[in-house]
Design brief:
The protein has 233 residues and is mainly alpha-helical. It has 11 helices and 3 strands. The protein is globular. It starts with a helix and ends with a helix.
Length: 233
């Protein structure tokens, strides 16, 4: 916990001169998504508030916002914890992803499309794989899908999916074989990018739909195995 708190202290500058619960929640959301506070971790009001230099009320409001986003959970008489997803949660996340991401691709207008962000995420993932950095590959994969959603040019859709992708990262943090989980999608991300670069919107949607179905199966398999091991006597 000391290492995580030291990292939070470094984030104090991000709060600026007007500390708000929204800014605190942005910092904590990022830290949770990046795995600094793994699923099941109890978040101490005193320690985190001291590291960020914010009041107890501000921190509680940030916790409330992140609880609403389903990243944290408040347990009576125990405190606030980083949420541990169920298999049903993971399935629902992927159901939402399929509805939104496929709709974004289907609704694209005539090419060319602004694909620089997608291309950058693909390159980031491939570079991380070359360094055998599979955690960063997973991060690049999330960035790829965030950039895909951003093609809709909808602030509301971006906000919705920001929360969904943050929840997805909670599942990824409990998977103990990140290479096996993420490696197959390096090629598939590039295939989707290639289809969009060629203006083949229908092909990109089919590739994405299959991708998400396969990813769901792979994540649920790994997640169920890990959760089952953790709950075994």
């Amino acid at each position: 916990m000391a290492e995580q708190l030291a990292g939070l202290a470094d984030d104090r500058a991000l709060l600026g001169r007007t500390s708000t619960a929204e800014r605190v929640s942005d910092i904590l959301r990022s830290r949770v998504a990046d795995g600094y506070f793994p699923p099941g971790t109890r978040l101490s009001e005193d320690s985190i508030g001291g590291a960020l230099g914010v009041s107890r009320n501000t921190l509680r409001e940030a916790f409330r916002l992140l609880t609403h986003e389903r990243l944290l959970v408040h347990e009576l008489n125990r405190g606030v914890f980083v949420r541990v997803l169920t298999v049903e949660d993971v399935e629902d996340i992927y159901r939402t992803r399929a509805l939104v991401e496929c709709a974004v691709v289907r609704g694209l207008g005539e090419p060319p499309h602004p694909l620089r962000g997608l291309s950058g995420a693909v390159a980031q993932g491939e570079a991380a794989a070359a360094e055998d950095d599979w955690k960063t590959v997973g991060t690049a994969n999330i960035h790829f899908h965030q950039e895909l959603v951003a093609l809709a040019r909808s602030a509301r859709t971006d906000e919705l999916m920001r929360s969904v992708f943050a929840e997805l990262r909670l599942a990824f943090h409990l998977v103990d074989e990140p290479r096996r989980l993420h490696e197959p999608y390096l090629t598939r991300n590039r295939e989707i990018l290639g289809a969009l670069e060629a203006g083949e919107r229908g092909t990109a949607e089919v590739l994405l739909e299959t991708y998400l179905a396969d990813s769901l199966e792979r994540v649920v398999e790994a997640y169920r195995r890990r959760v089952g091991e953790d709950s075994a006597p």
